[in-house]
Amino acid sequence: TQIGKGGHRHFMAKEIAEQPSVISDVLGHYTKTGTRIDMPAELPDFAQIDRLILVACGTAFYACQTAKYWFEQLTGLPVDIDIASEFRYRSPPIGPRTAALFVSQSGETADTLAALRYCAGKADHILSICNVPQSSIARESTVALPTLAGVEIGVASTKAFTCQLTVLALLALHAARQRGHCDDATLAEHLTALRGLPGLLNLALGQEAEIETVSRELAEARDILFLGRGAMYPIALEGALKLKEISYIHAEGYASGELKHGPIALVDPAVPVIVFAPTDPLFDKTVSNMQEVMARQGKVLLVSDATGLDTAGPGSWATIQMPHVSPFLAPILYAIPAQLLAYHTAVAKGTDVDQPRNLAKSVTVE
Ligand code: G6P
């Protein structure tokens, strides 16, 4: 069957807009009763695991990087993350009681598949999170968790990313529960927050007009920096990746705390600095990094909630308002402005958004 753009100008725009609905599907699939998390019985008992390894490429790797924060905080499990092309050739030691989890939209990325095959027979459990259920990576893993994003056509991944994040968040909660780190009441709170996620994503999508306006100015830049702390750091990396992929503007994502160890040297009025800063326990630290940028005439675009914008908005070049969200779910919500900024900057530049030059949807050769 032919998939259309559903009235959107590009597949990417359609896929961004679909996120509230596909994430509802993910939540429905993995929390059928609404009071517990439904995971396949073949998954390992996470109480019997001492180490988790997450491996992927590109945007799927940033989902893994975000999940490291969740798994470490919620489950106490040590988590290693790696990009597949490095992991596969490093001969990394895989000890007992290890689960290896591979994340891939296509399930056919050559390096991720090779990393999986390296772990087969070494790790106790080979798990995957794929968007294509009959793919090689899904077939070669013991347990394959579907992301249920539906077909993704835009080369730059959007809805597959937020669905990967949602499945990873659910898996982290499931593991936390098995490891005795999450009681009934805490789980119920998390599930309530998750049920609110599609509504919050809709509110974030509602900021599209403001994002489009600011993107017209971003389109004039030659270099753009993205900053975030904690679980927002991988979202800064994803924002930079998405922007360079489709607008061809050079962009770098940085952990806010690393600013003074290099990238601050780039700051001048011609380099916009996009800061993802929900009000969370690290908010004040991010704001002080942002002030260091503004003190050097840097143009800050602050993406935060109403409270954050009240405290830190004045003095910034532009602001984008997000709804309030629990720090746990903030990375999923803030993926939306990251995607929309890249999308509208690319549209303003007139690039081929759905088929950016030199890029493939699925990299099946090395
Ligand atoms: C390519 C795509 C990216 C994707 C990456 C990993 O680079 O252009 O959008 O994130 O491959 O692909 P996968 O299918 O394994 O998630």
Automatic annotation (TrEMBL):
Active-site residues, Swiss-Prot/TrEMBL: K361 (for fru-6p isomerization activity)
Cell location: Cytoplasm
GO cellular component: cytosol
EC number: 2.6.1.16
Catalytic reaction annotation: D-fructose 6-phosphate + L-glutamine = D-glucosamine 6-phosphate + L-glutamate
Function: Catalyzes the first step in hexosamine metabolism, converting fructose-6P into glucosamine-6P using glutamine as a nitrogen source.
Protein name: Glutamine--fructose-6-phosphate aminotransferase [isomerizing]
Name of the gene: glmS
Keyword Transmembrane part of the UniProt annotation: no
Repeat among keywords: yes
Species annotation: Dinoroseobacter shibae (strain DSM 16493 / NCIMB 14021 / DFL 12)
Residues of the full protein shown: 241 to 606 of 606
Record key words, sorted: Aminotransferase, Cytoplasm, Glutamine amidotransferase, Repeat, Transferase
Domain annotation SIS: ranges: 42-181, 214-356
